[in-house]
Amino acid sequence: MTATPEDMIHSLSLWHGPIEIAPLVGGITNRNYLVGDAGRRFVVRLGEDIPVHHISRANEVAASRAAHAAGLSPAVIHHEPGILVLDYIDAKPLSAEDVSHPAFMERVVSLVRSCHRDVARYFRGPAAIFWVFHVLRDYAAVLNAGDSRHKPLLPSFLEIAERLEREAGPFEIAFGHNDLLAANFLDDGKRLWLIDWDYAGFNTPLFDLGGLASNNEFSEAQEEAMLEAYFEAGVSDDLRRRYQAMKCASLLRETMWSMVSEIHSDIEFDYSSYTAENLRRFESAWQDFRNS
């Protein structure tokens, strides 16, 4: 008989006595639980490698450890295949409205800059490269092989990706988080934390910035403020266009991620609606880029 998530958590050897388990909402590549043990609380993330999404749990553990050493993320308490136990941070996840608010944006951008500057110093072992244009090409192959209902869109997507890759360079390389959803930022009332390192790897910083803006639906003025805060300087026309290209690539990746999840994920989530929303946003950004 297949073990339940609760059975898997109970079987871990690190507990000191009876534990309390409660599911956490959110998480569309993992199943997450809050566990109480001897007066302490922990977050337990259950999830195997997901090759179609380029997710390696060994890489996630290494990135989580490095991010903690850099002072950005909670400590890794325990891990074994398919299970990651993290220290619990008593904090609330940010919303898109929080991230785009001037009071938060400077702090969020500072945290992202710290990720790009500091995490690689502490990363140990083989590191991943998250190159969005490779991801897009691979997603197209997965969708084609899986006879996705979105197959007619793939030739156009690949053509667009090639153009974006040409226009987004030259590229600076840094260690990126690569999944800057609002809920991956936590506010404990004193500081912000950055969590969930499933997709972490070396990339161009503009991908994270494009993802931050697109995931949280920044206005044009908010995007300009974000770029000025990150680079601590005015924004040139060249930088602005390269950034816009990476923002389009980020939106296309999120769209195709959802398309792949429609046919490969067993997590209960409305991927069809998520696909439709991200496709709408991608098409709007692509139209703006073409007309700029």
Automatic annotation (TrEMBL):
Keyword Kinase tagged: yes
Keywords noted in UniProt: Kinase, Transferase
One GO term (biological process): phosphatidylethanolamine biosynthetic process
Protein's recorded name: Thiamine kinase
Pfam families per record: APH (PF01636)
GO molecular function: ethanolamine kinase activity
Domain of life: Bacteria
Domain spans labelled Aminoglycoside phosphotransferase: 21-240
Lineage: Bacteria, Pseudomonadati, Pseudomonadota, Alphaproteobacteria, Hyphomicrobiales
PANTHER family: CHOLINE/ETHANOALAMINE KINASE, ETHANOLAMINE KINASE
InterPro entries cross-referenced by the UniProt entry: Aminoglycoside_PTrfase, Kinase-like_dom_sf
Organism: Rhizobium hainanense
Cellular component GO terms, alphabetical: cytoplasm
SUPFAM superfamilies associated with the record: Protein kinase-like (PK-like)
Keyword Kinase: yes
